[in-house]
Amino acid sequence: MTLPIEKMLPTLEELPETFLISLDDYSAISLSGEEQSKYLQGQITCDVNDSTQNSLLHGAHCDAKGKVFSTFRLINRLSEHLLLQPKSSLNASLVELKKFGVFAKVTIAETSSLTFYAIVGEHAAEVLEKTFKQVPCSLTPVVQSNSTTLVYIPGQLNRYLIIDETEEIESIMSQFNLPVYTQPIWEMLEINEGFPIISESAIKEYVPQMLNLQAINGISFTKGCYLGQETVARMQYLGKNKRALFSLSGKAENEVIAGDILEKQMGENWRKAGGVIACYQADNGKIYLQAVLASDIEADQTLRLKNNEQSTFELVPLPYSLN
């Protein structure tokens, strides 16, 4: 069966207590085979050796110059490594992983048979407990229940990913009797939590520290060599990085898209402040942005979009420290 989808795009404050999100634009890269862990360890920023059947890791996949193809959440499902991420960054990352994967005993592919949903909100755990014997938590972020994988994502709003084969998951979802929202709601929540969303315009534009990967434990500085590791280490230990990821909210007359330029006011003039990498616009006109700006930007800095003088944005505090 097909679940009815809410077409509304509410603000954070307008969301119901508990709801579902159909993650149609969310997917994963799977790695399987005898050398899957060894191979992946040399490709990504987090330490694959810390990954277990119940763990959740954050990380980034970079090119040789340390520029990010994708950011992801790494889990294990049925003996495979899965790099969970939006489809907007998946293809570029997949091509690069396959390019070097021909030299290892590993199979790399997109998980086209899996469907992704999220359950979010105050009573999300209680709803899951009615269907599943074990619900993931901060100590056990990933739980496997028959063919269904549940992933706990902590934050200002509790979120749980529900992952299963396409033919199985709709019947599971129908048991919950909750409103179902579309993918943009997930992106608004990611912006609010400060988890970087890599749109096509942001691929290979930023090093991991510009996306706050170090602040969300997405970089291991002790694991040894991986693609782009020299640049990442230099940014960390030599203080080379001068940019960071920020969340903003505001309004604009025109549509805002990833790749738009933000300007900051300096006296009577405006100067480039950074670039938008993700955007969500609610039905009432409120806009949530994710942007890379100078890391020393003032908290009360006035910002606007280039060529959009009527727009205005302010920084929203991140749920973690950049220090």
**N- to C-terminal separation?**
48 Å
Radius of gyration based on Cα positions: 20 Å
Question: Low-confidence parts, pLDDT < 50 over ≥5 residues?
Answer: none
Tell me the CATH topology of the largest domain. Gyrase A, domain 2
Strand-residue proportion? 35-45%
Give a quick account of the main beta sheet: strands, pairing sense, barrel closure: 6 strands, mixed
* Alpha-beta content class: alpha+beta
Proportion of helical residues? 10-25%
Strand order of the largest sheet: 8-9-10-7-1-11
Put simply, the count of helices is 6
CATH superfamily of the largest domain: Probable tRNA modification gtpase trme, domain 1
Describe this structure in words.
The protein has helices at about 35-40, 85-100, 125-130, 165-175, 185-195, 230-235; strands at about 20, 25-30, 55-60, 70-75, 80-85, 105-110, 115-120, 140-145, 150-155, 160-165, 180, 245-250, 260-265, 270-280, 285-295, 305, 310-315. It is built from 6 helices and 17 strands. It has 2 domains: about 10-195, Probable tRNA modification gtpase trme, domain 1 (Gyrase A, domain 2), CATH 3.30.1360; about 200-315, Elongation Factor Tu (Ef-tu), domain 3, CATH 2.40.30. The chain has a 6-stranded mixed beta sheet with strand order 8-9-10-7-1-11. By secondary structure, it is an alpha+beta fold.
Core attributes:
323 residues; alpha+beta; Gyrase A, domain 2; Elongation Factor Tu (Ef-tu), domain 3; 2 domains; six-stranded mixed beta sheet; six-stranded antiparallel beta barrel; 6 helices
